[in-house]
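Mods, move this if it's the wrong board.
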Amino acid sequence: MASAAEKGQSEGWMDRLLRGEHQVFAEFVDKYKELVFICCRTLGLKGHEAEDVASETFLAVYNGLSRYKGQFSLSTWLWRIAYHQGVNYLRKNKKCRQLPAEPDTPFADSENTQTSAQAERKKEEAELVWQAVEQLPRLWAITVVLFYREGKSISEIAKIIKVRQNTVKTYLFRARLKLKELLADVLGENTDDNG
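Not the wrong board. Structure tokens:
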């Protein structure tokens, strides 16, 4: 469910967009383009493919403005559209790829008091985690990205990828087990105590 603040902002965007304020749509695209590109990268799209899917996503959003009812957050609605546009693109082009690693995205926030060596180690660990995520089956990986990186709830993820909430929980559970297995050897740590 959308928070009251996000719902108010969504209604503001929607009212102005439905009135035909084209500059507002440009601002909307600017605000949410990174979210759409994250979805595209998670699906394994690169370069011009991601740009094509992003364009199709925002066109679908523009054409579907009147259908947005605010039952879930605007970002969830947008992610759902981007996800389905990306899946459709992959089906049309029959491309099977692995997910890209996102080494520049820290998996955990680093504190200002950390030494540069600790910060470098955290960055390396985050890179290893995202490399492990790219080895997961696509739906598991998307679920991990939506839950841990995007902060989406189980119900929002279920709506985005059109599965039951219990299926999302199963994907997360299996993904965590597989990630522990993949990362145990690499990190050389006992990952059973983490998460």
